[in-house]
Amino acid sequence: MSGFGSLGHTCVVGLQWGDEGKGKIVDVMLEDFDVVVRYGGGANAGHTVVIGGERFALHQLPSGVLRPNVISVVTGGVVLDPTVVLGEISSLRGRGVAVGENLRISERAHVVLPYHRLEDQLAESAAGSGARLGTTSRGIGPCYSDKMSRRYGIRVCDLYRPERLRERLGQVVAHKNAYFRALFDHRQPLDAEQIAREYLGFGEQLRPFVCDTATLLNGLIGDGRRVLFEGAQGALLDVDHGTYPYVTSSNAGAGGACSGAGVPPTVIRATMGVVKAYSTRVGAGPFPTELKDATGDEIRERGREYGTTTGRPRRCGWFDAVAARYSAMVCGATDLAVMHLDTLSEFDAISVCVGYAQRGNVSNRFPADAYEFDEIQPVYETLSGWSGDLGRCRRFDELPENARRYVQRLSELLGVRLSVISVGPQRDQTMLLT
Length: 434
Ligand code: GDP
Ligand code: IMO
Ligand code: MG
Known about the structure:
The protein is of the alpha/beta class. The chain is about 30% helix and about 20% strand.
């Protein structure tokens, strides 16, 4: 596969609620790029790459780490869990993947600490079933909260100042223990000294990878190296533009690439918006086209829709063109990658949501207020289905006519050029159309 290089520096971003297949597309596109950059999120992500018979699930490292000639960069916009990073490095090495000079980690990244994971779990349990966000329990929200509050944040660079780290952790852990006890009646206090010792050790193990990634990246760009930005989560989970509060705590949309990586907005020339041919969501929150019936179950089973990070069954439903059009706009999608087209084979009819009906009116407006979705009914356009194993198709004209019509209709509804169609998890099950 080649042909993506003409796009220039490109951001790959999910236009739905995550798990669109970004890992696969990033892996395929990297044939034509020199550098891959994770710009936000943390170990809540789960990006799957299938190479030959092997399946890799990456949570904290960029998918490009599987390609030894590509420089993989974890930037300051990411919240970094050293236990996950070190576990991933060791598991990759165990599987024969070389991880060394090709991996760079920002000294500015905030560190996910044990109290972040604990707070995530305690807050979710305390919320009760009706009020849970359904987070991944990876401590993402609490870590980003500490970063933004500035009072408690600890960054990778802090792991190289033992005295300062001990002092700071002493204050932070005392605060967290008091907070957990008062709010959640949690009576097993964390030990600051033990955490300090453990994380200073992690710092030493991470040291060979740590640098100023913003300076590194801008230098690589100046040298003419081609950079691919690997979005995590999806634009509908973006803290500013998604279905707040049922979102993650970072700017998961394309806008997050510049702030997270420390590159100027003028650098990114293209945005590859990635969508599934239907919709999925894990965790709580609005999902107007959700199918809580046999059709939803069939999509889940055919598409193997179970979370890469948590193993949770994903909620499944028809493609929501109102939501995806909004996220394509917010991300400035120039290109569209439609994934999992193979999963929709064998349905007689396939529906696409083309409008939201609310109190007698139909509109294309994507509401800011998550609770407004309770009043919304999707307005569907129904297209004829197709049958057969699309996983064998390699060219657009090999697809059944109704499958071609379907993807063209999605592109038309979103107003974004159709560039990629994926018909299976493998690298070669990919069609490049431009
Ligand atoms: P990401 O978080 O966006 O990288 O997506 P995930 O890896 O969480 O979930 C996508 C799943 O779909 C993975 O298991 C992929 O191997 C798989 N996948 C990707 N593209 C396709 C496709 O076109 N067809 C099928 N059947 N599976 C796909
Ligand atoms: P990738 O990169 C799908 C969801 C969680 C939850 C909400 C908040 O694999 O597409 P968090 O732990 O971030 O505080 O959880 O966001 N979520 C994802 N859903 N794919 C992801 O990542 C996700 N990362 C977070 O399920 O609803
Ligand atoms: Mg995923």
